[in-house]
Design goal:
The protein is 37% helix and 23% strand. The protein has 372 residues and is an alpha/beta fold. It folds into 2 domains: 182 residues, Mur-like, catalytic domain (UDP-N-acetylmuramoyl-L-alanine:D-glutamate ligase); 135 residues, Protein-Tyrosine Phosphatase, Chain A, CATH 3.90.190. It has a 9-stranded mixed sheet with strand order 2-3-1-4-5-6-7-8-9, covered by helices on one side. Helix 2 crosses helix 9, helix 3 runs parallel beside helix 4 and helix 10 runs parallel beside helix 11. It is globular.
Length: 372
Amino acid sequence: MNDTLQALVDLAYAWRSQFNFPVVAITGSVGKTTTKEMVRNILAQTSMNYLASCGNQNTLIGVSLNILKMRATHDVAVFELGIAETGGMKKLAQLLRPTHAAITFVGHGHLQGLGDVADVAAQKRDVFCMLKASGIGIINGDQPELSQISYQHQVIRFGKKRINQIQASKIKVVKNCVSFIAKIYEKKYLVTLPTCNIARVNNALCAMAIGKVLQISDELLIAGVQQSMHVPGRFQILPHAFGCVLIHDAYNANPDSMQASLQAFQAYQTDLKKVLVLGDMMELGEKSDFWHQKLGIMVKKVSDLHSVILIGKQVALTKKTLPADIQSCHFTTIEDAFEQLKCMLLSADKVFLFKASNSLRFSALVKRLQEI
């Protein structure tokens, strides 16, 4: 750690020591930012004065900068924590010292730096390492990597299984909205999310569990998660002037978020022709070839596809496993693919889903297409 970063961390550590109000940490392989934004929407329903970290500032630098925004006038603060290497979560938890913490989901993210899924789970569980006896850990109770662990603190579980205190059932997509029955302990509520992305159900359950820990009423929990969300690069629906639709889901990508994105695209109801624009998933280590080959098989589950555009080096493997009856083409860079996408956009009869790791710069590609 260089001297400048160490000075920032030391300053943030000292600043954090002043405050005794609840501080919530959110981590997970997917869904950190979306869950945090749902918690923000829940808190906005209350009279609490709250701090929610900006965007996806979840690294040592980002967390430190957001800690420095804490004030004595706040009633609660919510942070997201992200890691890409072993030991990173413990450093973040020791810096933030959360009073409560949540893990949204453990999956195949940052395998290169963290190992297999069991290793990822162990690293994510370090978010609980600074909880006191009064602290509460919130976990995805559907995942054995989290639910079959003995914890030294109270735990609230969320998920689809009946054993969870916060549970979702009867999930369905109607008119591009997800509805489900939320069971919050012994009470049941109908919840409708303004998205066709079923993965948001998991985010909503986690956010409601956090709200419950903060002693917010069930009615305000429901009202909060049902608010519209516009998180850049997270299944962001962008109508184009020509009549096409661009769905920007390319803030980042790993096998789990890719599968969720494809599932949401399958559920998206439209008369437009569906086009997938997929790029490399980074930091998968020795499993990279396997997952990029499997991506072609995952695409098979999206019915009524018009075509698939692949951009990047690793997705050359994906093209080999795509169904033979799906029209597809492969480009190495977004610059190479731009003219093809521009021509397709001008036809005014398509909806495009963009999904890739952030380093592929799909955000710049989407912005450029928007400007046509």
